[in-house]
Amino acid sequence: MVQALAKTLTLQEFLQQPETKPAREYINGEIIQKPMPKGRHSRLQGKLCATINQVSENTKIAYAFPELRCSFGARSIVPDVSVFRWERIPFTSDGNVPDNFNLPPDWTIEILSPEQQPNKVLDNILYCLENGSRLGWFIDPDDLSILFLLPQQQPVLCRGDRVIPVLPDLELTLTASQVFSWLKMV
């Protein structure tokens, strides 16, 4: 039996393909489909973006984007939340938000879905940190924990009332308990 070899796409060829829902990521020459977000994931993602933007948008410190494609190095990834410091947002010449972000976020946040393999998700956070990101969060709703990662430092697991680091200059204090309390809506 003869098998046809699949043609490997370059990053540029991948980026010319139409977007899909849920998004696909390009990692080490491989195209990986992200799982469709479910209830807990969507709730945490929405609340994180709203909470971060509430303290950072009007003051033009930073902005949190949900499901934003970030293409840099040899990858094109779609973190659940990408936070960019205001001065690093690549605005167009007329001051609009661009379609393409060809740089890593300053703060990348991933929320683990039941269908995801934790190490693959962590790999994207580590890749961001190796390429200029200043902070990563790995949120596990089943474990009620948030692993925060800083460049060239030991990861720290947060549960309960331990304050989780955010980007400098953000007037925001969050604990794992606060983040997971957003899941209760009644």
Total helices: the number is: 4
**How many whole angstroms does the radius of gyration measure?**
17 Å
| N to C succession of SSEs | HEEHEEEEEHEEEEEH
Strand order of the largest sheet: 3-6-7-8-9-10
Q: Can you count the beta strands?
A: 12
Mean pLDDT: 94
Low-confidence stretches: 1-5
Give the total of domains: 1
**Can you say what the CATH homologous superfamily is?**
tt1808, chain A
CATH architecture assignment name:
Alpha-Beta Complex
* Percent helix range: 10-25%
* CATH class label: Alpha Beta
What features would you describe in this structure?
The structure is a single chain. The chain is α+β, with helices and mostly antiparallel strands. It is built from 4 helices and 12 strands. The strands form 4 sheets. The chain has a 6-stranded mixed β-sheet, with helices on both faces. A two-stranded antiparallel ribbon has the order 1-2. A two-stranded antiparallel sheet has the order 4-5.
